Automatic annotation (TrEMBL):
GO BP term (any one): DNA-mediated transformation
Protein name: DNA processing protein
Superkingdom per UniProt: Bacteria
Entries under PANTHER family matching the protein: PROTEIN SMF (PTHR43022:SF1)
Domain Smf/DprA SLOG, first and last residues per copy: 80-294
Record InterPro entries: DprA, DrpA_SLOG
The family this protein is said to belong to: Belongs to the DprA/Smf family.
SUPFAM superfamilies from the UniProt entry: MCP/YpsA-like
Matches recorded under Pfam families: DNA_processg_A
Length: 379
């Protein structure tokens, strides 16, 4: 088993993540034999790896220092998480042939545990003040409600979301397109240190590896797969955040977007997501909106605008009419009186009264029905 683990580490330094041919090769012969085949320069045809690609892997193998990568990882207290480990998030397996072979992780919290209640917050690097404020507020609000925020550590919306979580003493995960010891962008070095102390830095690339343009797009699938849903705060029509959104949609995750001014170029991508047919994207403006989508039933009902959504607001019109006709106080009203007040027939009234009693809105007394007293509110 240890040989398989070390082999995956070797493959992470020799083969680019997201390469389906590597994944198929490992599935077919195992990681250790895949390494041996690449070193021989001959891999099974079933993997789909071309001769050109095998030659390229061989050239990179000569430049990759396996022991050095593991030593650096140990120096900053990092670890390697592989499929089958208790810490491995099983949601990553839904990526199929694009699933990671492993993850390099820096930080003390458990990756799988913190991702069970997590939301991705992504957006433009060249974010507007509006986008930065929205992302920071959303990160802080989600953290206050016990949710993990996952993003990419980039300038703009990503960084604002991470900082919002850190300011609220929450947990945030940065999925990087570089090694977890490489501060990119450099101005986020201090922030990455804070994230490593309170959350996690995650990457498919070994230590010392620097990002490239394609790697930012490759890592986006991991952001989408780790989380319950993705929120796009700001994005132009060619934003990398839309790439994350498309991964979220293909994985069946909840996809949400913040609206912006119609004159803002940085919101055109969000507006296109919201206009799509069928409507796969939900418009959100705060953490409560987000948690209504991704959280358990009932989470996110308290609105930040001072107008709480009460359980009775979700009742159908007939049930609500019956509830309005039930009196408060110690004496109750008989069923026929409630039917008259609600302008409904007796069978409908009886069924709605039974429902309201079962859900805790009303109580039955000797004289009829009355509202449940304030000290015993309905669930």
């Amino acid at each position: 088993m240890e040989d398989e683990r070390v082999a995956r580490v070797w493959l992470s330094g020799v083969c680019e993540p997201g390469d389906a041919s590597v994944w198929r090769l490992v599935r077919e012969v195992g990681a250790a034999e895949a390494v041996a085949a690449i070193q021989r320069g001959r891999v099974p045809r079933g993997s789909g790896a071309t001769e050109k690609k095998v030659v390229g892997w061989g050239m990179r193998a000569g430049a990759f220092d396996l022991e050095g990568a593991l030593f650096i990882c140990a120096q900053f207290g990092g670890r390697v998480v592989c499929p089958g480990d208790a810490e491995w998030p099983s949601t990553l397996d839904q990526l199929g042939e694009a699933a990671p072979l492993l993850l390099w992780v820096r930080g003390s919290v458990d990756l799988r545990a913190v991702c069970l209640r997590s939301v991705a917050v992504v957006g433009a690097r060249a974010a507007s003040p509006y986008g930065l404020r929205a992302a920071a507020d959303l990160g802080a609000e989600l953290a206050d409600r016990g949710w993990t925020v996952v993003s990419g550590g980039a300038l703009g919306v990503d960084g604002a979301a991470h900082r919002g979580v850190l300011a609220a003493d929450g947990t945030t995960v940065a999925v990087l397109a570089s090694g977890v010891d490489v501060a990119y962008p450099p101005r986020h070095e201090a922030m990455f240190g804070e994230i490593a102390a309170a959350g996690l830095l995650v990457s498919e690339w070994p230590p010392t590896v620097h990002p490239t343009r394609p790697r930012f797009l490759v890592r986006n699938r991991v952001i989408a797969a780790l989380t319950k849903g993705t929120v796009v705060v700001e994005a132009d029509l060619r934003s990398g955040a839309l790439n994350t959104a498309h991964h979220a949609r293909s994985l069946g995750r909840h996809l949400m977007a913040y609206p912006g001014p119609v004159t803002s170029l940085m919101s055109r991508g969000c507006h296109e997501l919201l206009r799509a047919t069928p409507p796969h994207t939900r418009l959100v403006t705060c953490a409560a909106d987000v948690l209504e989508e991704v959280g358990p039933i009932g989470e996110g009902l308290d609105r930040p605008d001072g107008r709480p959504v009460l359980p009775r607001d979700h009742l159908d019109p007939d049930t609500r009419a019956v509830l309005e006709a039930v009196p408060a106080g110690s004496r109750g009203a008989p069923t026929h009186a409630i039917a008259v007040a609600a302008s409904l027939d007796l069978p409908t009234t009886r069924s709605r009264l039974a429902l309201l009693a079962a859900t805790g809105f009303i109580d039955r007394t000797r004289s009829g029905w009355r509202l449940r007293t304030p000290h015993t509110p309905p669930l």
